[in-house]
Amino acid sequence: MLEEFFTLYLKLFFMMVPFFVLSVFLSLSKNLTKPEKKSVIFKLSIAVVISSLIFLLFGKYIFNLFGITLDAFKIGAGTVLFLSALDMIRGGREVPAEKLESGSDFAIVPLAIPITVGPGMIGILMVIGAEVNTIMGTLLVVLSLLAAVISLAGVLLLSNKLQDFIGKQGLAVLPKITGLFVSAIGAQIIFSGIKGFLF
After folding, report:
1. Of 10, 118, 124, 113, residue with least CA distance to 77
2. Rounded to two decimals, what is the model's pTM?
């Protein structure tokens, strides 16, 4: 049980692309005071939890509504996830210039959605939600999600210290490393969907 929790926690934490979120947060919050930064982080955390729970708990009903099989969705979600990871590795993920105005209310859009809860995160939440059939299993996923969001909030609360410690070059490299892990998760989901179709 503990091992499954830790595995889910790590998977969800990396799916939130924490180091990319960190670099965007640093850019957007550079003119904010500490209380304002804490307010942004709090709003972000609440938005991520609510939106993630919606996709996690109601994803299976969306499958039934549109007649989508879980295996088909795994292939589609895994592909989107893999392509998103490639963008991270190549450094192609950027925030539109109009969203980079410091001091604007950016906690929900674009920081929570679509940066933290992007297409890849939505896909994996819907896949996990469709695979879980017990109350204990659902509770385990929800606790893993909450732990991942708390960890992300912790990273953002320590953003200035992390920037000083890692440096700008380090912040540019970390999202690429995260992208490698995310690409592996995407590939695994694709292979799982193909295996479900064939066998």
Report:
1. 124
2. 0.86
